[in-house]
UniProtKB/TrEMBL annotation:
Family listed: Belongs to the purine/pyrimidine phosphoribosyltransferase family. PyrE subfamily.
SUPFAM superfamilies from the UniProt entry: PRTase-like (SSF53271)
Gene: pyrE
The protein's enzyme class: transferase
Residues where orotate binds: T131, R159
Known partners and oligomeric status: Homodimer.
Coiled coil region boundaries: none
Organism lineage string: Bacteria, Bacillati, Chloroflexota, Ktedonobacteria, Ktedonobacterales
Function as written in the Swiss-Prot or TrEMBL entry: Catalyzes the transfer of a ribosyl phosphate group from 5-phosphoribose 1-diphosphate to orotate, leading to the formation of orotidine monophosphate (OMP).
Pfam family name, one: Pribosyltran
Protein name, UniProt field: Orotate phosphoribosyltransferase
EC number(s) reported in the record: 2.4.2.10
Keywords, ordered alphabetically: Glycosyltransferase, Magnesium, Pyrimidine biosynthesis, Transferase
Amino acid sequence: MNDPKIMQIFSDVGAVVSDSHFVYSSGRHSSVYINKDALYVHSNVISALCRLMVRSYTADQIDVVVGPVLGGIVLSQWVAYYLNQKRSSGETLAVFAEKESDGPDKHFAFHRGYDRYLAGKNVLVVEDILTTGGSARQVIDLVRQHGGNVLGLTALCNRGNVQPEDVGNVPIQTLITVSLETYTEEDCPFCQQNVPINIELGKGRAFLAKKKTA
C-alpha cells in the first residue's frame, strides 16, 4: 500500500498529471502521466525520496549503484550517498549507463570506464519510473554482462505493474505504485476519439514528428 505522505510529495510538486493524452517512452498511450521532471527540479525532494529508497537495504552489502541516463544519474548519486551514510566501512560507488540509441530499439552501454567497477560487485539498480521495465531490464542485463551481481531494483514509481520476472527476476522495491491503463497506438481510445496528444510531457512531440514523416 502506498504511503500517503509519499503520495503527497509527488502531488505537491505536480508530479502526477491526469486528464490528457500522453505517449510514454515505451510507445504506449495513457491519460495519466507521472512527471518525474517535476521532481528533479527540487533537490530537497529528490534527496528525501532517495533516502527512502535505501531504507530497506543493508548498505554494507551494496558496492555499486547503477542508474540509466538521464534521471538515473541523479538517483544513483543520492542513493549511493545515503547508503554511504549507513555503511560501517568502505564506500558505495555510483555509476550510470548511457543510451546508445533511442526509441523502441534503444539500448545501453557503459562508457567512461565505469564497466571496470562492476565485476564481482554487488549492484543495486535504480530507476525513476517503471512502465514496462524495459530500460531497467537492459541495465540489469548489462551489469550482468560485465560480471556484476544485481541484488535489487529500486524505483520511485511503478506505474506499469512491472514484476520481478519482467526485469530478470530481480527483487523490486518502489516508493509508490500507480495503476494506470495504457494502450497501444492501435487500441488507444484517445487516438480513436481524436483527443490531442500532449506535446509538453512525455514523448508526444516525437511521436507526432515521426507520424508526420512516415
